[in-house]
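User: Structure tokens for this complex, please. No commentary.
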Amino acid sequence: MKVVIIDYGAGNIQSIRFALERLGAAAVLSHDADEIRQASHVIFPGVGEASSAMKKLYDTGLNAVIPTLKQPVLGICLGMQLMCNTSEEGDTEGLGIFDTEVVLFNTNLNVPHMGWNTVDGSGKLFSDISQNSHFYLVHSYYANCCNDTNATCTYELPFSAALARDNFYGTQFHPEKSGAVGAQLLQNFLNL
Amino acid sequence: MLTKRIIPCLDIKDGRTVKGVNFVSLRDAGDPVELAQRYADEGADELVFLDISASEEKRKTLAQLVRNVAHAIDIPFTVGGGISSLEDVGILLENGADKVSINSAAVRRPELISELAQKFGTQCIVVAIDAKQIENEWVVHLVGGKVPTERKLFEWATEAVERGAGELLFTSMDHDGTKQGFANNALKQLSETVSVPVIASGGAGTVQHFIDTFALGNADAALAASVFHFKEISIPELKSVLRNNQIPVR
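Assistant:
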């Protein structure tokens, strides 16, 4: 197994590496297209602002690499959002892997949506994880529910907590920061 | 449902955990990484590390401690204390901190909040506010609560959020160290004033104080130190009582 975490200068990626290490999986940070293509599993992280993160992907050519990957790919938080069609944040196009759009919370509740919320998930990523388990989220934008949604979370209205299509997966929550259930989800990803 | 968060705070000096009583006298309460691990295992929702030596001694970095903590625990944590530049924040985030908390430097130069939010995203910028009531006004204080400023709590909180604070950590210096409960009136007004989560800090002594700060103070999270460090309140027990009081917890 060779896990590559895509390193394109978007936020805190050490936490993901440390979380994989706790599961006994060494991970390499890379922005090299060949190294990413050769990985058994690819993690696409991201923290920060969507349009500037997309610009970084264009600058490095990774925008063309990521959608063509064949191995399991997991986008986390902004990574997942960038895999959607569009984002309202900075009004940017996404990678168009998941057939949905990312929009700003329009609510009287606090924004960002920050903390531990319950997630209803299904599919391989959620095996051995109880319904309504708590995951840690921090985000101001969310992906609308769509045919690719395989987990939902509710913050005034339901949104995509996780997406899946073919070999592509995405979570709005941070599994690397979600205690034991998060570790289980990462293990499920590594088991793919 | 989004849950209310319980946040043990580890005050760090010279690599060890300490807790100030009214910010002055200090007691040693253990190794930070070991404590962090214990709290994560017990069900803490998040941790805050405040380097209390930083403001005074101008110590620039907690990078190694942050790295050790990030290695050991699988819940989010915030690092604060003496942070005054984009470079400081970059180093802490690169080493695995999820959020940083800024305090004095933001009051001195509010543009810092905007610059940090733009570079790193609002989600990782916590603005910590220490305030004390003087003649019915909540006056913001600096340098661990020693220096009064011209700023008032609610107007400063509003500006901090407009500039990009993703969360506020409000410590009432009148309550801190007293174990008489949180500043719930001010907290309630604060949560009505801003649209970001508010962490209550200062005054935790009993389980009832936590119930009150969520139910009456409308806090999104409650932070405490010595009641956890000295095992006066256990986190599993606290959460069980909160749950029985219809306060959603993990």
